[in-house]
Design goal:
single chain; 455 residues; alpha+beta; Uridine Diphospho-n-acetylenolpyruvylglucosamine Reductase, domain 2; Uridine Diphospho-n-acetylenolpyruvylglucosamine Reductase, domain 3; Vanillyl-alcohol Oxidase, Chain A, domain 3; 3 domains; nine-stranded antiparallel sheet; 15 helices; 29% helix
C-alpha cells in the first residue's frame, strides 16, 4: 500500500492512495484514505462519511487473499492504533488497540509480562482486529480459533457510538462481533486472554498419505498442536507433533531451509513449471524428500507457530467436520489422480480447531478440520487455478464445509445462510447496527445481503 505521511490523513483523508493485498491479487483506489490515531478521529471520519453518503471499510496489513477490504469510497487504516491500554497480570489478560500486530505482541509486548498467546495463525504480520474479524486459526484438538481467546471488544458503530461487549456485557453482540468481517463497526480495542509464556518442542516427521488418513485420530491425539501437509501428486506427508516444554531452545541443523534457499529455489522452479507443467509433480516430490525424516526444534511459541509466506500465492481454506477429514482428503487426491492435466502446488495443509459458539465462526457447533490449498504466483506470474479450486470447493461442499472468511471464495448469501446456524441472526444484528449500510462494500453486499427478487 502506498502511504503518504501527512497530517490530513488522520481525519480529512487523502486521495490517490492505492491499496493492494499482500499477494497482489486484489487492489482498489479509495476516494479518501484515512489513518486515525484516536477514537475521536474515527468518529469524525464516520460523521464525514454520513454527511457525504460514503461507505467505509477498514484495512489492516492486507494479508487476506480476497477483496474483503476493498472499496472505492473511504478506506480506514489503523496502523496508528497500536497502544497497550491495560495489563492484568493476575488474570493474564492484556487490552490493546486494534491495529497492533500479532508480531509486535509476540516479540515486543507480551515478553515484558511473561505472557503468551495461546494460538495464532501462520502469518504474524497481521493486526489483532483483522485476525479476529476473519476467524484466523492455528491448530490443535483442544485449541479454538483466535477469536475464542478474546474477552472484550470495543467498537465504534455507524452512528458513532462506542460500544463495549463481552460475555458479561452485550453478550449477543460479542458473539457476533468476535468474527464479524468488519461490518458491525470499527473495532478500536481488544482484550486478549493470554497464558504464561511457554516454549514448544516440535517434532517434524514424515509418512505416507495412506498411513496418515488411516490413523488420523491417533495422530491428532498424540500432541497438543498437531498439523500435517500433503504434497499433491505424491504419496508423501510431513507432519508436526508440537507440545509445550521446559527444555532449552535448540534447533536441528537444516542448511537448506535455514538460509531460505529452498523458497528462492522453489519460486524459480515453479516459474519454470509454468512452461513445463510436468515438472510440478517432480518439484513436489523433491521437496517432500527434503523435508522427510526426523527434525526436532525447541523455541518460543511464536517461532514454532509462525510460518511466514515468502512469495505471492492464491490460497483458499475451508473448515469441515473433523470426522470427515480422511474422506475429504481421499476425494481430493482421487480427483487429482483422475485429472493429470491439473497440476497442484504443495502444500495441502491440514489443521484442526475445537468447536465454539461464535456466530460466524467456521467452527460454530462442531470440532473442525481446516484444509488449505495454494497455488503459488512465482514472480507475480498468473498460474491457472480454476479447475483445482472448483473441484476442491465441490468436495468441501460435499462434506458441509464452511469457508475461512479471510480467504477468497465464490459463495453468496444464498449458499451461506444454510451453512452457519446463526447466519441469519448475524445478518439481523448487522442490519440493526448499520441500517444505512455504512460498512458495506461489494464483498459484504455479496455475503450478507440477499438479492432482491428483481435481480
Amino acid at each position: 500500500m502506498d502511504i503518504i505521511n501527512k497530517d490530513t490523513v488522520m481525519t480529512e483523508g487523502i486521495s490517490g492512495t492505492i491499496f493492494r493485498n499482500w499477494a497482489n491479487t486484489f487492489s482498489c483506489e479509495p476516494e479518501l484514505y484515512f489513518q486515525p490515531s484516536c477514537v475521536e478521529d474515527i468518529k469524525l471520519i464516520l460523521e464525514q462519511a454520513k454527511k457525504n453518503g460514503k461507505k467505509v471499510r477498514v484495512c489492516g496489513k492486507g494479508h487476506s487473499p480476497s477483496d474483503i477490504a476493498c472499496t472505492n469510497e473511504y478506506l480506514v487504516n489503523l496502523d496508528k492504533f497500536t497502544n497497550v491500554l491495560k495489563v492484568d497480570e493476575d488474570n493474564c489478560q492484556i487490552k490493546v488497540e486494534a491495529g497492533i500486530t500479532i508480531k509486535t505482541l509476540n516479540e515486543e509486548v507480551l515478553p515484558k509480562y511473561n505472557m503468551a498467546l495461546s494460538t495464532q495463525g501462520s502469518v504474524s504480520d497481521i493486526t489483532v482486529a483483522g485476525s479476529i474479524s476473519t476467524g484466523t486459526h492455528g491448530t490443535g484438538k483442544h485449541i479454538g480459533i483466535i477469536s475464542t481467546y478474546i474477552t472484550e471488544i470495543e467498537l465504534v458503530t455507524a452512528d458513532r457510538k462506542l460500544v463495549k461487549c463481552s460475555r458479561k456485557e452485550n453478550k449477543e453482540i460479542f458473539l457476533a462481533a468476535s468474527c464479524s468481517l468488519g461490518c458491525l463497526g470499527i473495532i478500536t480495542s481488544v482484550t486478549l486472554q493470554c497464558e504464561p509464556h511457554f516454549k514448544l518442542q516440535q517434532r517434524q516427521m514424515s509418512c505416507s498419505f495412506k498411513e496418515m488418513v488411516t490413523h488420523l485420530d491417533e495422530h491428532i491425539s498424540n500432541s497438543e498442536y498437531f498439523r500435517f501437509v500433503w504434497y499433491p501428486h505424491t504419496e508423501g506427508v510431513v507432519y508436526w507433533e508440537v507440545d509445550k516444554t521446559n527444555r532449552q531452545k535448540t534447533s536441528s541443523s537444516n542448511w537448506f531451509w535455514d538460509y531460505a534457499i529452498g523458497f528462492h529455489l522453489l519460486q524459480f522452479l515453479y516459474w519454470i513449471s509454468t512452461f513445463c507443467k510436468w515438472l510440478v509433480p517432480v518439484i513436489n516430490y523433491v521437496y517432500f524428500k527434503l523435508h522427510s525424516g526426523l527434525r526436532v526444534d525447541i523455541d518460543d511459541y511464536y517461532n514454532i507457530f509462525g510460518f511466514e509466506c515468502l512469495f505471492a500465492q492464491y490460497v483458499t481454506d475451508w473448515a469441515i467436520p473433523r470426522e470427515k477429514t480422511s474422506e475429504a482428503l481421499e476425494d481430493l487426491k482421487s480427483w487429482l489422480d483422475a485429472h493429470p492435466e491439473v497440476r497442484a502446488h504443495f502444500p495441502v495443509e491440514v489443521r484442526f480447531a475445537k468447536q465454539d459458539d461464535l456466530y460466524l465462526s467456521p467452527c460454530y457447533g462442531r470440532d473442525s478440520c481446516y484444509i488449505n490449498i495454494v497455488m503459488f504466483r512465482p514472480y507475480g506470474k498468473y498460474v491457472e487455478k480454476d479447475g483445482y479450486w472448483t473441484a476442491y470447493e465441490n468436495i468441501m461442499l460435499k462434506y458441509n464445509g464452511r469457508p475461512h472468511w479471510a480467504k477468497e471464495h465464490k459463495l453468496t448469501f444464498k449458499e451461506l445462510q444454510n451453512m452457519f446456524p446463526k447466519f441469519e441472526r448475524f445478518c439481523e444484528i448487522r442490519k440493526n447496527f448499520d441500517p444505512d449500510g455504512r460498512f458495506v462494500n461489494d464483498y459484504i453486499q455479496k455475503v450478507f445481503i440477499p438479492k432482491s427478487k428483481n435481480d
